[in-house]
Amino acid sequence: MTREIDAPGGEAPGGEGSGAGARPPAPPRRRLRRWVVTGIVVLCATWTALAASKILASYHADQNGIAALDQVRGHLAPDELTSDHARHLLDSAQQDFASAHGSLSSWLLAPVTIVPVAGRQLRSLQDLSSAAGTVSSTGSTFLSQVHAIVNSPHDAGPERIDALRKLSDLASAAALRLDRIDTGPSAALVAPLAAKRRTFVSQLDETRQRLVRAAQVSTVAADILAGPQTYLVMAANNAEMRAGSGMFLDVGTATTGGGSVHLGKMVLSAGLQLPPGAVTTSGDLARNWGWLVPGQDWRNLGLTPRFDVTAPLAARMWQADTGQHVDGVIAVDVAGLQDLLRVTGPITTDGVTINADNVVAYIEHDEYTGLSFEAIQSTGRQNALGSIASAVLDHLQGQSVDLTTLGTAISSAAQGRHLLLWSASAPAEDAWKASGVAGTLTSRSLAATVISRGGNKLDQYLSAQVRMRRAASGADTAVTLTVHLHNSTPDGESEFIAGPYPGLSATYGEYLGLVAVNLPAAATHRSMTGAGRSVVDGVDGPTWVLASTVDVPQGQSRDVTVRFDMPGHHGSVTVVPSARVPPVRWQAPGRTFDDAQPTTLPW
Predict the structure, then answer these.
(1) Which of 48, 74, 262, 332 is the most buried (most CB within 10 A)?
(2) For 372-420, what is each residue's pLDDT tens digit?
(3) Residue 172 and residue 149: Cα distance in Å, rounded?
(4) From the CA atom positions of the chain, what is the Rg in Å?
């Protein structure tokens, strides 16, 4: 009997796995290596999945926080910013950014921080989420503190000065905290992250500057209320327009001290005409508009939308006429009074009850019903504009006014150029400029205005629309503005409203005016067609102004076309409010808006 001999590995010869192609079993060391590699792969896959989940969680939390901040940034009116909703949004954003930072700082992602390229990206994300959380926390704390101040007693007097100084301190402290925020590395970032960081840094800087401006304005306002200071007050009627404001028909002075403001008697500007040479104009104003003697006739102030030019001239005119020096100038129009009446509620003057709903119709129309120029001259009748302005200010002094509501009204009026301020003090003027209430222009400003020259009150019936078109023109961008004017004056209006003004060759309801357009400084190949005689073509501060006569008979329309080129294929302009009531309607590529506030149009 033949003895069987076991083969190595315990298998008999000729069994399974035998033959020329059989694979020998893996040695123990090789099997161990396979198990280690498999374990590492599984571990890496698990780490990758967990790390990805952390990054994804961070992304979602980050997006939620950004959405909350965008909501707050998109609603910047004082009443919205001081509401509980705004603070809740900021608190929610802070929690989201804290969650995002926690996910990005997880121990699971610690290995990435030592990788040269990926580590920099992660550290940038960590720093940005931390910075965004700090912004949200700072904003929430700031708004809570502001809310406490505006809801505390603040009657006219020292309490308002104290409230303004506290607001200034809070804004300065918040701005300083934002200035110390570390936004992380900026170099060698991947394109999407670099873009995100640039946007965040830009918005952070904008927020900080807003706080700095708020601190400046609060300080200046407190100083003015503390007094003693004297401001010239000019009340404008939007039924008879100038460039960027109504015609200044009533003037007077307001004195400040101890937290209160007293407005003296307002007088008709028509009775304050100065003799030739008493006040001289110079510079661009003299070259462009000297033929209308703006330094003599108060009604011819405002021929330029540059209130920083108009206001100091008005101050000199007042001093030449009365001998009184003023520290600054305030201009308010019908729409501005309407905003303030929403704060004070109805007022009664000359036996008439005026409120926010009827003030525009009353000042622009109703008080002139049935009046002729001869009747006005014989009776020496005063405008209601000045008395209404005085009554509104008295109401603001005599009651506890909600500062949030007042801030909203002032903000609305300032955005539409219905409230304008100028100060002879450089720090105060800087604050007015920074807050957008100084009525200044920049080299990117674009303003389309219609100036009345008919001596009537027909601007309330002259609708204005502007259509903007753009097209490439070689290396430049060709811009075309079509200004459409329509005169809807009804029959049966008084002579004082619809004319004709004595001595002018006009008919009933005919609008006589000037179309004036301020163009950005870089504009070339400028032209205006469709209007009458060209009267102005020259530099106006940081802009260039074109102006021509235009006549629009009752029931008819006119189109005036302005053409100019801007350098390059990309740029922007900022449309300056005209202060017309109702505002001018603009149609631009991809946008339709009213010029009730400054609007930037990029391309």
Answers:
(1) 332
(2) 777 665 555 567 888 899 888 888 876 566 767 777 888 889 999 999 9
(3) 15
(4) 34
SS3 of 255-294: the string is EEECCEEEECCCEEHHHHCCCCCCCCCCHHHHHHHHHHCC
Contact 338, 344 (CB under 8 A): no
The tokens of 294 are what? 């703006």
Structure tokens at 141: 């704390």
**Residue 97 reports pLDDT greater than 80:** no
Prediction pTM value? 0.79
CB-based contacts of 83, cutoff 8 Å, min separation 6: none
Q: Which of 60-69, 235-244, 452-461, 547-556 is predicted with the least confidence, judged by mean pLDDT?
A: 60-69
To which H or E segment does residue 424 belong?
A: none
Answer whether residue 143 shows pLDDT above 80. no
pLDDT digits (tens, 9 = 90+) for 314-335: 999 999 999 999 999 999 999 9
Q: What CA–CA distance (Å, rounded) separates 200 from 359?
A: 44
The token duo for 389 is 């302005």
The conformation of residue 368, written as its DSSP 8-state character, comes to G
Question: Which residue in the block uniquely carries the two structure tokens 């028509």?
Answer: 270
The region that residue 218 occupies, defined by phi over 0 for left and psi between -120 and 50 for alpha, beta otherwise, is: alpha
Backbone angles phi, psi at 118, to 5 degrees: -65, -35
Task: Report helix, strand or coil for 418.
Answer: coil
Cα–Cα distance measured from residue 224 to residue 160, given in angstroms and rounded to the nearest whole number: 11
* Whether 484 contacts 557, CB under 8 Å: yes
- Quick check: 506 and 487 in contact, CB under 8 A? no
The DSSP line for 139-199 is HHHHHHHHHHHHTS---TTHHHHHHHHHHHHHHHHHHHHHHT------SS--HHHHHHHHH
User: Would you say residue 66 has pLDDT above 80?
Assistant: no
Q: How far apart are CA 37 and CA 535, in angstroms?
A: 87
Query: Rounded to the nearest 10 degrees, what angle do helices 116-150 and 28-73 cross at?
Result: 30
Rounded CA gap, 188 and 118, in Å? 10
**Can you say whether residue 549 is alpha, beta or left, with left for phi > 0 and alpha for psi between -120 and 50 degrees?**
beta
The CA-to-CA distance between both ends of the chain, in Å, stands at: 103
